[in-house]
Amino acid sequence: MKDNTRLVTGGRHRNDDPAQTEFVNPPLVRGSTVLHPTMAEMRSRVQRRNAGDDAEPVAYGTYGSPTHHALYEAMNQLECGAHSWAFPSGLAACSLAIIAYVHHGQHVLLPDSVYWPTRRFCVRWLAKHGVEATVYDPRLGAGIERLMRATTRVVYIESPGSHTFEMQDIPAIAAVAHRHGATVVVDNTWATPLYCKPLRLGADVVVHAITKYIGGHSDLLMGTVTTTAEAWPALRESIHALGQTTSADDCWLALRGLRSLAARLAVHRANAERLIAWFQARPEVERVLYPALPDDPGHALWQRDMSGASGLFGVLLRDGLPPHASDTIADRLQLFGRGASWGGVESLVLPSSLERSVTTLPGPGRMLRFAAGLEAADDLIADLEQAFAALQLPG
C-alpha cells in the first residue's frame, strides 16, 4: 500500500479483531491491571514476555494496551520497522534511543545542528555517567570516519537540523558507523515517515517527536522510537528497566493525528512555499534555510533521500539591520505565535540563538525560524508585511 493509505489504515483490525466491533477507530483501552483466565496462563504470559516475545498478550499495563499496540503497528508499517514504542515526550524518546546502546567508558557522536535538549543530554548528563560525546559538523558525511573510535557505540543524526536545516548523508554515515560496530539513530521529526524512511537508508533506530506533525494539534506530548529487529532487544531492555510508558489516551490522540497527516502536510508545505517566496523578495533577507530549495546546500541530499518537505524553515536576515531585528519582527507578528514548538495547525515564529562548537553561525538577532500553519497564506503574508515595516533599513 501507499503511505497515504497506511496513514488511514495502520493499527486497524476491523476484520480480524472482534474487540473492535464495527467502530472505525481502534478503541481507547485504559488500564494498569490485566486479568488472566488461570494462574498457569498468567505465569506463561509473564515468562513469554520476559523472554522477549512481544507478540504475546500483555501481562501488565506497562507493556501497553491494545491502543498502544495499534499505534506501534502503524509506526512499524510507516517506518518499515520491526518494533516501536511510545514515550512521554520527544526528548524522552531521543534520550532512551541513545542510552540503550551505550555504557560507561563508551562514546557518542552527534551533529552540531542537533536539537538543543538532546545536545545537553549527551554533553552534560551522559558525561556525568562516563559516556563521552563528540559534536561533529552535520555536513561531514563519510568524513565522520576520522571521528570514530574503538569505543564509539552511537552515531546520532538529525536530518535536516531543526533550526539551521543542514541535510545529513544518512547512507554514508551509516556505512561508516556500521563498519565500526556503532548503532545509527536518526531523528526523523521534520520529514515525518511520510517523506523519509531512515531505516531504508541504513539507520538502525528512528526517533519522532509525535508532539509535532504527527500529533498535529499542539495538544499532545509524546515521542516514539522505531527500530530494526536487531536493534530492538537493547532498547526493549532499557524501556522496561526504566519503566518508560505513556497513556493510552495519548496513543489514541497520536493515531488520530496520523490519519490526517498527509492532508495537513500538503497545506503546511504549500503555505511555507508562499512565505518563502515572499521572504526571498525582501531586501532584509539574506537567504532562506530550506532543503527543498534548489539553491540550498543540502538540496541534492534532500532530493535523493526524501519525497517531500514540511512547513518548517529558517530565515537569515542580512547583516547591518538594527540590533535585535529578529525580536522586533517576532514581537510585531499577530498571526504567528511566539513559541518553541511546531507541527500544529497554527503558525509560529522563534528567533534562533543556538549553541555551536564546530560550525559557525551568523551573529545574534539575524535568524528566525518559521513554522507555516494552516491559515490562509495571504493573511500570513499581510502579517509579515506589517511586522517588517517596523524595521528601518540603513541608508
Fold topology:
Layout (H helix, E strand, L loop, with lengths): L2 H7 L29 H12 L15 H14 L3 E5 L2 H10 L7 E5 L4 H13 L3 E5 L15 E7 L11 H10 L3 E5 L4 H4 L9 E5 L13 E5 L4 H10 L6 H12 L1 H20 L4 E5 L9 H7 L6 E6 L7 H8 L4 E2 L9 E4 L15 E5 L5 H12 L7
Parallel strand pairs: 2-3, 2-4, 4-5, 5-6, 10-11
Antiparallel strand pairs: 1-7, 6-7, 8-9, 9-12, 11-12
Describe the structure.
By secondary structure, the chain is α/β, with parallel strands linked by helices. It has two domains: 80-241, Aspartate Aminotransferase, domain 2; 261-388, Aspartate Aminotransferase, domain 1 (Alpha-Beta Complex). Helix content is 35%, strand content 15%. The chain has 13 helices and twelve strands. The strands form two sheets. Strands 1-7-6-5-4-2-3 form a seven-stranded mixed sheet, sandwiched between helices. A five-stranded mixed sheet has the order 8-9-12-11-10, with helices on one face. Helix 3 packs parallel to helix 9, helix 4 crosses helix 5 and helix 12 packs across helix 13. The longest helix has 20 residues, at 261-280. It is globular, with a radius of gyration of 22 Å. The termini are far apart.
Give a brief description.
This protein is an alpha/beta fold and 395 residues long. 35% of the residues lie in helices and 15% in strands.
